[in-house]
Amino acid sequence: MQSAPNLPVMWNLSLRGSSSKVQILNLKHRKTHALHCLRSEGNAEFENSQENIGLNSVTKEAKHKDIWNLFREAQQNIFILNKKRLAAVEELEKLKKEKDELLERINQLEAESSQTVTKKADESSLLWKLLLRIDSMVINGLIGVEEASSMRNLVREHQVKLSEFPLDVLQQGDAQVLAELRRFPTKGRNGLHVIHICTEMAPLVSVGPLASYITGLSCALQGKGYLVEVILPKYSTLDLEEIEGLREIEADAYSYFDGQLHANRIWNGVVSGIGVTLIQPLYYVSMFSRDKVYGYPDDIDRFAYFSRASLDYIAKYGKQPDVLHIHNWQTAIVGPLFWDVFANQGLEDTRVLLTCQEFDSKCLVPPEKLELCGLDPTSLHHLDRLQDNTNPQVVNILKGGIVYSNKVVVMPSSDSEGRALHHPGLEPTLAVHKEKLFFAPFGLDNSTWDPSRDVYLPENYSVEDIRGKSICKVELQRQLGLVEDASTTIVGCVFSEISDVDLESLKSLVRNTENNDVQFVIMLMNEDQMISRKVETIEDEIEGRSLKVVTEETEGFSHLVFAGSDIMLCMNFHDPVLQVPLKALRYGTIPIQVNRKTAGFSDSTFGNMPLRQALDLIKKNTRLWNLKIMEAMEKDLCCDIHVSAYISIKNM
C-alpha cells in the first residue's frame, strides 16, 4: 500500500484532470464555435463569391451579347456599304462605258466630217488640177480648142468619177493625163462657168476689200455648183506657198499690146478649191515685179496689158465661160475689149458682169491710151460710150465697163475712215443704165467670221446646233460684269464712227426701251480719244439701264459681242468697213438700223424691223424668232445677189 502522503498528489492530479477536461471542452466548444464562425463566414464569403460570380457572368453575357449585336450590326453595315459600293462601281463603269461610247461617236462624227470636208477639198482640188492640165495641153499643142472644150465639160460636170482617176497619172506628163481622160465618154454640160479677171485674191495678194470678196464669193458660188476660176497678174509679191499644185506651163501664151504680140508665161494651181491662173509678161517684166500692187504712173498701161492678155488666153485656148466677171477700173476695159474684139472668137454665149467697189479718178486717160490694147479711140470717144461726163477731153475706163457690161453690181464704197463715197462723174451713166444695176453688200471672209469655227468664241455653234450661242451670251455677260442670264436679251452696237445725230438716236433708243429685261453692249472700234470720250458719256447720261460701253478692243472681243447679242444696232446697213449687218446675220443676230430713215437690205429676213418690234418678237414668239435666226444664218446676201445677176444675164 502506498502511504497517505501520496493522496493529495492524486487529487491534485484528479483535479488537474478535471480542469483539463473542462479546458478541453472549452477548447472544443471554442473550436466548434470558431469552426461555426469560420463556416458561417466561409458560407457568407462563398455565397458572396457565388453572387459576384453570377453577377460577373450576367454582365459578361450582356457585354458579349452587346458586342455580338454590334458585330452583327457592323457586319450588316459593311454588307450594305459593299452593296452600295458595288452598285456605285457598276454605275461608274456604266457611265464610263457611255462616255467612251459617246467619245467614240464624237470621234467618228468628227472623222466623218473631216473626211467629208477633206473629200470635198480633195475633189475640188483634183477637179481644178484636171481642168488646168487641159489648159496646159492646149497651150502645148497636144489638143485642139474643140476637144479641150468637150473635155472641160466632161470634167466639170463630174461625169468623170474623180475619185477613180489615178492620182499617179497627174504626176506624169500632159500626154499621159490626156490618154487617161480620153477613156471617158463625153457628155453635155450644165450650170454656169464664171471666170474672174481681177487684181487681188486672198490670201495670195490682198490690198483692199477686193481680195477677200473674190475668194469668199468664189467659194460660195462653187458651193452652189458653179465652176469658178480666177485670173491674176503674177506679181513678184505673191504668196506662192498658198497655191496648191503650182505649175509653170512650158509653152508661152501670146497676147497683143502696143501693136505687137508679146509672150507670157502661164502658171496655174488651186487656191481654196478655186482654180487660179497667173499671167507673167516676159517682155514687160517690170510691170508686175514691183513692191506694190497699185500706185504707179503707168497703172493704166499695166492693167490694160493684163486685161488684154487674159482675154487672149481665154479665147485662144478654148475656154467658153458663161460669165466674165470683171472688177473696178483695173479690169473694166475688158468690157469694150470683149464686145469690140473677142465676142466673135468662140465666145458668142459669154456675157460680162462688172462689180464696182470703188469709183476712182485714176481711170481717166487720154483716148489714145485705148490703142495700146487694140481698141479704136475714134469709135469709143463718144458720150454714150467712154467719153467722160465732166471732162470731154478724156475717156473714163470705168464708165466703159458700165456701158459695155451686161449687168453691173454696185457695192458700197468708202474711204479709209469708213465714210461713204459718191460716184463722181458717173451719176448720168448709172442713171442711163439703171436697169443693169444690182446693189450688194460686201461678202464676209468665211475663214474669220464663221460661228461654227470661230476661235474667239467659248463655244462654237451653227444652224444645225445653235445652243452654243447661249454660252457665248453668258460669257459676254461675265466678262462685262452684267447679270449672267441666258434668257436676258442683249442688244449690241458695234461701230467705228458715230455722228452726233446717230449718237442722240442711239441714246433715245436705249432710254425708250420699255422692257427692263434688256442689256445693252456698245462697242467702239476706233482709237480716236475724242470719239471715245463722246461715246463714254452714254453710261453717265443714261441711268437705270444695264448698259456697258467698251472703247478698248481686245483681240477677238468683237466676235463675242456679235455671238452673244440677240440684236445688233447698226449705224448704216451699207457698211463696207466693219460689215456689221452681215456679221450680225452670220452670227444669228438681228441687224436693226439706229436711224431708220433708209431701208435695210431689201431681202433681209428681218426687213426694216424697229427695235421695239424685235424685242416683242423675242418675248412673245420665241419659236418664230428662232426660225428667223436660223434663216438669217443660212443667208449669204452677197452671193445671193450675184447669183441673181448671173441668172439674169443668162436669161437675156
List the SSEs and their pairings:
Elements: H1 7-139, H2 145-156, H3 167-170, H4 174-181, E1 193-197, H5 209-223, E2 227-233, E3 244-248, E4 253-257, E5 260-271, E6 274-281, H6 299-316, E7 323-327, H7 328-332, H8 334-342, E8 351-356, E9 364-365, H9 377-380, E10 395-396, H10 397-404, E11 407-410, H11 427-432, E12 437-439, H12 468-480, E13 489-495, H13 500-511, E14 518-524, H14 529-541, E15 546-550, H15 557-564, E16 567-570, H16 580-586, E17 590-593, H17 611-620, H18 622-634, H19 637-650
Parallel strand pairs: 1-2, 1-7, 2-6, 7-8, 8-11, 11-12, 13-14, 13-16, 14-15, 16-17
Antiparallel strand pairs: 3-5, 4-5, 5-6, 9-10
Describe this structure in words.
- With 652 residues, the protein is an alpha/beta fold.
- The protein has 3 domains: 121-183; 193-445 and 643-649, Glycogen Phosphorylase B (Rossmann fold, 3-Layer(aba) Sandwich), CATH 3.40.50.2000; 467-635, Glycogen Phosphorylase B (Rossmann fold, 3-Layer(aba) Sandwich), CATH 3.40.50.2000.
- The chain is 48% helix and 14% strand.
- The chain contains 19 helices and 17 strands.
- It has helices spanning 7-139, 145-156, 167-170, 174-181, 209-223, 299-316, 328-332, 334-342, 377-380, 397-404, 427-432, 468-480, 500-511, 529-541, 557-564, 580-586, 611-620, 622-634, 637-650, and strands at 193-197, 227-233, 244-248, 253-257, 260-271, 274-281, 323-327, 351-356, 364-365, 395-396, 407-410, 437-439, 489-495, 518-524, 546-550, 567-570, 590-593.
- Strands 1, 2, 3, 4, 5, 6, 7, 8, 11 and 12 form a 10-stranded mixed beta sheet that branches. It has a 5-stranded parallel beta sheet with strand order 15-14-13-16-17, sandwiched between helices. The protein has a two-stranded antiparallel ribbon with strand order 9-10.
- Helix 5 (209-223) links the parallel strand 1 and strand 2 (227-233).
- Helix 1 (7-139) packs antiparallel against helix 2 (145-156).
- The radius of gyration is 49 Å and the shape is flat.
- 36% of the residues are buried.
